[in-house]
Each structure stands twice: as structure tokens, then as C-alpha cells.
Amino acid sequence: MMNQRDFFAELKRRNVYKVAVAYAIVGWLMVQIATQVFPFLEIPNWVVRLVIVLVAAGFPIALVIAWAFELTPEGIKRTEDVDLAASARQPRKHAWIFVVIVGATLSIGLFFIGRYVGRTTASAAGNEVPAKSIAVLPFDNLSRDPDNAFFAEGVQDEILTRLAKVADLKVIARTSTQRFKSAPENLPDIANQLGVANILEGSVQRANDQVRVNVQLINALTSTHLWADTYDRKLTDIFAVESDIAKPIADTLQAKLTGSEKQMIAAQPTSDTAAYELYHKGRSLWEKRSGDNIPKAISFYEQAIARDPNYALAYAGLADAYILLPYYTATAQRDASPKAKEAALQALRLDPNLAEAHAAVGKVLNFAEIDLAGSIREFQRAIELKPNYATAHHWLGAGPLVDLGRFEDAIAHGKRAIELDPLSPIMNADLGFTLYFARHYDDAIVQLRKPLVLDPTFAYALYNLGMVLQSKGDLPGAIAQYEKAKQFSDDPHISALSGAAKALAGDKNAALQTLTDLDKISQNREVLAYSRALLYLSLNNKDEALRWLEQSFADRDGSNIGAIKVDPLLDPLRGDPRFETLVQKVVAPKTQQ
Predict the structure, then answer these.
(1) How does residue 483 score in pLDDT terms, banded at 50, 70 and 90?
(2) Strand, helix or coil at 399?
(3) For a Cys-Cys bond, which of 51, 312, 396, 398 suits 350, CB 3.0-4.6 Å?
């Protein structure tokens, strides 16, 4: 029986140690080549995994061969057949040492090159891109009927919506991805703009009651195809297809799914495909936020509800549209708000776990009810249900959190919204507005110029930029921005801001004339009491300014009155007991009002 000392001596004599070290170095070199070089050659990931498995499996085999066989001048022989005395007299060869050194040098070099390239890529993108991040680009409409473009948009949006419910993923909103074509050539550049590592491309072809959906998942940083499939189904099975696509994408990106997330991915929002198309037509128009698109969106949502009265998502969309209607049309808030509230609550009754419904209720509580605490609860619930819902982060940050002066939280949610929807003009502008309320004026100016790069005619960003400049003491610069904003919008509030700034610059008649103009405008459309308050304040008439602020609160003008606590334009009123009492009425919990 061989004792332990003899056994280790035998291992040394049979060169097992040498083989183990050399194999480990060369094996590591092969793994580094596979992981660092193969992706750039577009070699599939399964080949990389196969190399790793083979290297690991080969290690014990190499040790067994080293034990059983020995290389001699006469060739390879079984160790038992080798003359031990002759073997001991052979001069020792050190070639294996050179193999180890060269292999180790190459392995370490590849390792650090890979690390350096990875850091450089991340640095070029501005931030480290999460591996579990994805953007779903617009799907090609391969159908002959151009009206099916909305159907293709719907398929894209439904897949995106299901993925957005997975907390372990970062999913970019459709308003940002819509700026790109279906199968672009510059995927790395698009991935960099959107802050993702992976891109899903696809196409939809619809003929009568048949649908074909092609999809492919690509690592945009390496142009590696990760997964692809084709689905041929009946039109009535389209919801199952969307679930079937979302699940393997999550699996391919190694996202951890909870039981509730699996259920939400598989959920079917409606059984009526016509209602489904109508809803997505409405959603597409609502996202544009311009012209008469929101009234058109309302019409499509109502048609979808008429087709399927239990379509909770359509009610949530209807609520969102009525919430924003006064800001893009002449509709009065007192007419739109009750309709928004009714639709939002109906969506919640139909589906208590619908994130869009909770966000809609949160917006109603913020704007129409001025219930800031209740609004925060609803937005937080929406984010729990759909972590990648950019709109919920956006409205929470730019709404009740700002109104309460919780700027650190508000800015964090604003930045998170932009991470999920980086090319959204409104979300970029509202983060700038939040920074303005937090009195980070220089940061606000930088941020507000970003949406103007995306859309130079965006009046909301222009007049917000004017408010920042005015608060910094640059009245000529502010007036220039207000006047420019007036070129692209007939919102009376912009005229009020401009008139007030001119009064502060010495032209009192400008404010008086604007007050007269607002009286005429109010005969045909709503004029915010907040606008008149700012004009009277510029005339140093604090009594009238406070009266109109009280009226704004009575009108439930939450979009402006909610910010009464933090708006720098109201600084001349701070310290006045009447003003401080009004602030408390606004920011106090609903139960105390």
C-alpha cells in the first residue's frame, strides 16, 4: 500500500503537478479568448459556454492521462512500462515552464484588455449600462393595409408593457423608442442614446384573421443575436403571443421573475381585438401631447370602452387624457377633472392591480383634489406594480413631492423617469422645473435646454426656462423666452408670465394690459386664477394677489396651486400670515382640510 508521502512523490515524478499548472494556465487563456474575443466576432453565446464547459471537463481528464502515461524519447508509454532508473537519468526539460509563462502572460493581458474595453464602453455611454436593460424598437408593419400600423404599434407596446412589470429589468418607454426606425443599422449608437444593452426588433404581418410576428433580441453593444422566433397565430391569440414573447426575453436576459410578475406578464387586458386596436390608437395620440391629438385620443378610448366595458386599461387611458385636456385645449378644468376622476376610479374598480389606473388616480388627487398624501400613495403603488412605468415616476416627482418641498426625492424620481424615457421632452422639461423649485437654477437651465434640443418649439420648456432666468434676476432673458414661447402656444398663462416680468422690469402698463386681455379671453376659455395672482403681485398689489391665490385653491387648480409652497415667483408674499395659512391648506393631509 502506497503511503501519503510516496503518493505525492509519485505525483511529482509522473509530472501531474506540471500538467495541472500548465493546463490551468492554458485553459484560462482559452476561456479569456472565448469571453473577450468571440462576442466581437459575433460567435454565438452557446459556443462560449461550450468552450468553458469543455475546459472544465478536460482538467480531470488531463490529470488522469498525466498519471497513466509518460513522454519518453521512445514516445508515449504507460507509466508502469517505463524504466524508472533510465527516466531519472534523462536531463530535465524546462519547456513546460515557458508554456506556462507565455500562457499566463496572454491570459492576464486578455483579462485586463477586456476590463479596459468594458470600462471604456461604459464611460463612452456616460454611465454603466445595466446588462438587464432593453429597448423595444417600433415593429415593421408588413401588412398591405397602412391602417395596420396602429396594430403593429400595439403589439410592440404590449410586449414593452409586460416587460416593464419586471422589477429586475430596465425597460425604455415607447415615447423614446418611437424616434427610431424598426431595424436600424446603428444599433450601438441607439443603445447609447437610450442607455440599454439590448434591443428587440420585430415585424408584424396581418392578413384577415391571421397574424405573423417575427422578433429578434440583439445585444447592441456586441451586435450578438441572443434569441429570435417567429409566431404564426390567429388574430384572437395575439395576447398569448405577446406573453410568449415577453417570457423568453426575460429568461434570456436572466431576469428574476416573481410569481406576481409571471401572472401580470400572462394577463389578458381584453378579449376584443377591435377594442385593443382602438385603445392603442388613443395611446399613440395621447403620447404626442400636441394639437388636437388628446381630444382624438379621448374618442378612441371611448370607442374601445364601448366595445369592451370591462377594459380597465382603456378607462385609465381615458382618465389620463381628461387630466391633460385643459393644458392642451380650451377645456376648463372644472369640466375635465370630474370626468378624469370617474374614469380613473372605474379603471381601479375593474382592475385593482393595474399600475396605469393607480397613476391616473394619483394624478387626479394631485391636480383636482390637491390631496398630496393620497396622490403619493397612488403613485407609489403604481411603481410597485410596474417598476419601469416612467409616467408614474414622472408624475410623482414633478407633482406631490415637489409641492411638499421633498426635493431630493422629487429629483430622484425625475431622473429615474428620464432613465426610462430619455428622449421624452416633457419628462426632461419637468425635471428642469423641479430643479427650479429646488432653487438649483444653474442645473435647471442646463436641464431645460435638453428638451429644446429634442423640440425647439416646445413652449412649456421655453417658458419654464424664462421662469428660471427671472428668478436669477435676468428679466430681459426671461421676457425673451416668454415671448418665444408665445409663438408656439396660445396658453394665456404664458402671456401672464410675460406681462408680469415686463411689469417687474418697469413696464407696469404691460401687466395692466395683460389683465384686461385675460378678462376678454376668459369669456371663451378658462384663465387660471394663478395667472392673475402673478400679475397683481408684479404690480405690488398683494391683497389682490392673495385673493386670486385663494380663488385658485377653490378652483382646485392643483397643477399650479400645489406648488405655492415652493414657487420662487411668490417670494414677495412669504412671511405674510394670510399666505402662510393658504400654504398650510394646500400641503396639509386631505383628512385635515
Answers:
(1) very high
(2) helix
(3) 312
CA distance 434 to 460: 13
- More confident site: 125 or 175: 175
* Contacts for 185-193: CB closer than 8 Å, 24+ residues apart: 187/218, 187/220, 187/223, 188/220, 188/221, 188/223, 190/135, 190/137, 190/220, 191/129, 191/135, 191/220, 191/221, 192/124, 192/125, 193/422, 193/423
CA end-to-end span of the chain, whole Å?
Answer: 91
Q: What is the pLDDT of residues 389-399, one digit of tens each?
A: 999 999 999 99
Note the pLDDT tens digit of each residue in 104-126: 565 566 555 544 444 444 334 44
Place of cell 429568461: 251
Please say if the pLDDT value at position 31 is more than 80: no
Separation of alpha carbons 518 and 371, rounded Å? 29
pLDDT score recorded for residue 126:
42
Q: Provide the CB-side half-sphere exposure for 501 (13 A, CA).
A: 25
The answer to whether 527 and 518 have CB atoms below 8 angstroms apart is yes
pLDDT value at residue 103: 57
Q: Which residues pair with 11 in a beta bridge?
A: none
How big is the chain by its Cα radius of gyration, in Å?
32
Burial class (CB in 10 A: 0-12, 13-18, 19+), 521: middle
Instruction: Name 466's Cβ contacts closer than 8 Å, sequence gap at least 6.
Output: 477, 478, 479, 480, 481, 482, 485, 497, 498, 501
pLDDT for res 8 = 63
| CA separation for the pair 295, 289 (Å, rounded) | 10
Which amino acid, one-letter code, is at 245? I
Cβ neighbours of residue 105 under 8 Å, at least 6 residues apart? none
- Bridge partner residues of 70 (DSSP): 77
**What does the pLDDT look like over 400-415, one tens digit per residue?**
999 999 999 999 999 9
Average pLDDT (504-526) is 95
SS3 at position 69: strand
User: Which of 137, 277, 315, 158 minimizes the C-alpha distance to 217?
Assistant: 137
Tens digit of each residue's pLDDT (9 = 90 or more) over 485-500: 999 999 999 999 999 9
Residue whose grid cell is 395620440 = 285
* Amino acid in position 205: Q
Extract the C-alpha cell encoding 448.
431645460
Residues in the chain: 593
Contact (Cβ atoms closer than 8 angstroms) between residue 52 and residue 30:
no
| Lookup: cell for 47 | 459556443
Residue 344 is which amino acid? A
- Residue 193: exposed, middle, or buried by beta-carbon count in 10 A (0-12, 13-18, 19+)? middle
Question: Which pairing describes strands 210-219 and 198-207: parallel, antiparallel, or unpaired?
Answer: antiparallel
Q: Which helix (H) or strand (E) holds 136?
A: strand 133-136
**Which comes out higher in pLDDT, residue 384 or 592?**
384
